[in-house]
Specification:
Layout: H1 7-18, H2 20-27, E1 33-38, E2 41-47, E3 63-67, E4 80-84, E5 91-93, E6 114-121, H3 123-128, E7 133-134, H4 136-146, E8 154-158, H5 163-168, H6 175-178, E9 183-184, H7 187-194, E10 199-202, H8 217-224, E11 228-231, E12 244-249, E13 258-260, E14 262-266
Parallel strand pairs: 6-8, 7-9, 8-10, 10-11
Antiparallel strand pairs: 1-2, 2-14, 3-4, 5-11, 5-13, 6-12, 12-14
Length: about 270
């Protein structure tokens, strides 16, 4: 069985099969950011979602699309059939991903998907160590500046990770470095659970640091506790570290263990 530490390796082959122009096109897309008048103030809306392309799907076969011919074709109707692995692109992990009897994507209430946003910045650590982690001292440092992490919030890690950039530079890395990526440390899970945090998020493709796989200690502890996670976020460096709201838009698909998501920050 292929474990998720090898996902980027497979993604490199898939990206090369697409050609360098596809990577360039995908990498050039900047998520939307708008400012709207709202009850006498400006409401900032920031997209935290990578555009979902075949380049960003990483592993071969994760995303395919084909036209479906139907009776409306002559009238100008277009219809596609999409085949996709649940955990593709910017996506949500539901508890059922690691807990067979846990909540599926379709079971998660909308009240659990519009939550306070907390951002913990480990970019400095990640520059020095590709396997840097959100550790208890990072949580303590955030709380010294901003107060106790709000109950029911999503705590997101910003590491400065660029998934498409990692794929493009994969061949220049040593075998040890290829398996590294920032994530949460398992020691943080109990702290966040005691704060009644509902979700965690990362700008990498796994909430577990690369060298923690394939044991997946963070996935095991967090998802089996009935909470959700977001992977493959972007633009977190442009969102406020405290005081914002996060909306994770996912189709409530019955029995799904995960789902590509449109994730938005509001502040």
């Amino acid at each position: 069985m292929i474990d998720r530490r090898d996902m980027l390796a497979l993604g490199t082959l898939g990206a090369l099969a697409l050609g360098t122009s596809s990577l360039a096109d995908a990498a050039s897309v900047t998520p939307d950011q708008v400012s709207l008048p709202f009850h006498g103030r400006q409401l900032h809306v920031l997209d935290l979602t990578h555009r979902l392309t075949r380049a960003f799907a990483f592993t071969p076969g994760r995303l395919s699309m084909e036209a479906v011919e139907g009776s409306g074709t002559k009238a100008g109707m277009a219809l596609n059939r999409i085949s996709i692995v649940e955990h593709t692109g910017t996506h949500l992990d539901a508890p059922r991903h690691f807990a067979p009897d846990g909540a599926s994507v379709g079971d998660i209430a909308i009240s659990q998907l519009i939550v306070p946003l907390v951002i913990i910045d480990i970019r400095k650590k990640a520059k020095a160590d590709r396997d840097a982690r959100v550790e208890p001292e990072d949580v303590a440092a955030w709380e010294r500046k901003h107060g106790r992490i709000p109950a029911g919030s999503c705590v997101a890690m910003v590491s400065g990770w660029d998934p498409l950039g990692v794929v493009a530079n994969y061949g220049s890395l040593s075998p040890d470095e290829r398996r590294k990526s920032p994530g949460f440390d398992a020691a943080v899970m109990d702290i966040l659970m005691k704060r009644n945090v509902i979700g965690i998020g990362v700008d990498t493709m796994s909430i577990d640091a690369g060298e923690a796989m394939p044991a997946f200690p963070v996935h095991q502890a967090w998802l089996r506790s009935g909470r959700w996670a977001l992977e493959g976020l972007t633009n977190l460096d442009r969102a406020p570290v405290a005081g914002g709201l996060l909306f994770a838009g996912v189709a409530p698909l019955e029995n799904a263990t995960g789902m590509p998501a449109r994730v938005i920050a509001l502040y």
